[in-house]
UniProtKB/TrEMBL annotation:
This is Uncharacterized protein.
Length: 89
């Protein structure tokens, strides 16, 4: 598996995990971010960054950002973004 395909698969997997929480759960944590080291589906050592940020204003939609990269090659990583729409409370 190529590096790009491996990182893309790892990023998609991480995004799915990142979006398992509902807006109501995330509103208490946002803004928040974390970086941790792990392994890609192809067995490469990679770093995972996950962030939850307010899309436009606090209390609105939440932007989820995921970045997966080899520790020595941050710029060549894969970035994904998704928005979790604000629930009516």
């Amino acid at each position: 598996m190529s590096l790009a395909a491996d990182l893309a698969e790892a990023a998609r997997d991480e995004m799915e995990r990142a979006c398992t929480l509902a807006w109501r759960q995330l509103r208490e944590l946002t803004p928040w971010g974390d970086t941790f080291d792990g392994f890609s589906p192809g067995g490469r050592e990679v770093s995972f960054e996950r962030s939850y940020l307010w899309e436009d204003e606090p209390g609105g939609d939440i932007r989820v950002e995921v970045h997966v990269y080899e520790p020595e090659n941050y710029e060549a990583g894969i970035r994904l973004t998704r928005v979790i729409k604000r629930e009516t409370v």
